[in-house]
Each structure stands twice: as C-alpha cells, then as structure tokens.
Amino acid sequence: MATIIPLADVDPALIEQVLDAAFEPERRQRTAYKVREGMEWLPGLSFAALDENDMLAGTIQCWPVALTDPQGRDHPMIMVGPVAVLPDLQGKGYGKALMTAALTAIDPRAPLPQVLIGDPEYYERFFGFSNAHTGGWRLPGPFEQARLLCRTANQAVLPAEGTLGPWRR
Q1: Could you tell me which of 69, 88, 110, 128 has the fewest CB atoms within 10 Å of its CB?
Q2: Is 58 exposed, middle or buried (CB count within 10 Å of its CB: 0-12, 13-18, 19+)?
Q3: C-beta separation of 6 from 43 below 8 A
Q4: Closest by Cα among 32, 27, 3 to 16
Q5: Helix, strand, or coil (residue 161)
Q6: Nearest to 5 by CA among 41, 78, 54
Q7: How far apart are CA 16 and CA 29, in angstroms?
Q8: What is the structure's pLDDT at 169?
Q9: Which residues contact residue 127 at a Cβ distance below 8 angstroms, ignoring those fewer than 6 apart?
Q10: What pLDDT, on a 0 to 100 scale, did the predictor assign at position 144?
Q11: What is the block-wise mean pLDDT of the chain (169 residues), using blocks of 10 residues?
Q12: What pLDDT does 88 receive?
C-alpha cells in the first residue's frame, strides 16, 4: 500500500532522481516541458508515494497552464503530470494512487479543466480523460494529437482551437 504525502515534503534532488529513472535525463526535451516552461508546480495538487519502507516510490506534479484561443483569451487549466514511478515499482498501483490523490485534491467548487499527454485508453478508462475536444489544440513542440487528453465537468468551456502553454497571469 502506498503512503501519499505532499510533494513539497520531499527533497527536490530525490524528485529529480525519480523523474530521471522513470523518463531518462532527456525528459527535459519533451514538449510537455515547453508547455509548462517557467512555471512552478502546484504544491496543493502535487504528491509523492512512499513504499512500505517509507522510501520514495513515485511522484506526480500538476502545473498551471492555459489554452490561448485564436482571439488571444487565456483559458486556465491544470496540466497533470508527469506521473513518475521508479521502474522496478511500476505496475504496482503507485501511479494510480498518485493520479487519484491529485485529481481528488482539485476543488470541486471551481474545477479547472485538466489536461495531460498520455495513453488515451488508460487515462480515459480509469480517470475520464479524453481527446474528443483537443483535436484543434496545438502545443509548442511535436506531439501525437491522440495523446493530448482533457478532463472537465463541462466540455462547453473548452475552446475548439488554441495553443497550450504556461499560464502567466
């Protein structure tokens, strides 16, 4: 069973080690890093999972981003991820526990749409993310359109077109 704690309680060097182990040091070249460039992760929505020996098993970070529509209006969103689990612990439920913690922490009284880049079958089945409304969205780098996913209680708030990037307001 995972113990979930605030990510802010974890040494930043340990967080970087988990991210490197899960995604390789070249991870910083990925488009997701450009989407959230210059932003700090959201402490209230970012968590760590500890294993049964209280050792760091994985992390999740959430970020303030915005979809800028063709008229230049920013639509704030929360970028979920990366979800990083140490390779030898993957498939043991740590990632699901981290996703559940982050999504549960979002205030239901004012939920912003959540966006991520990931496997559509997995994230739709377990967490309700979909690419049904992201076909006209662009990112500041290469990406597979089918892997750009969004989750929101009200699809009517989602612009049909726009560019996803850091929320600088």
Answers
A1: 110
A2: buried
A3: yes
A4: 27
A5: strand
A6: 54
A7: 15
A8: 66
A9: 99, 103, 151
A10: 96
A11: 95 96 88 94 97 97 97 97 97 97 90 95 96 97 96 91 91
A12: 96
Nearest to 48 by CA among 12, 88, 78, 75: 12
Structure token pair of residue 66? 């915005």
Give the HSE-up count for residue 117: Cα atoms under 13 Å, Cβ half-sphere.
Answer: 19
Going by the DSSP 8-state scheme, the letter that residue 40 receives in this structure is P
Closest Cα partner for 115 from 89, 143, 94? Answer: 143
5 token code pair: 């704690």
Q: Write out the DSSP string of 47-90.
A: EEEE-TTS-EEEEEEEEEEEEE-TTS-EEEEEEEEEEEE-GGGT
- Helices 94-105, 120-127: axis angle to 10 degrees equals 60
106: left (phi over 0), alpha (psi -120 to 50) or beta: beta
15: which 2 tokens?
């967080």
**Predicted pLDDT of residue 17:** 96
Amino acid (1-letter code) at residue 85: V
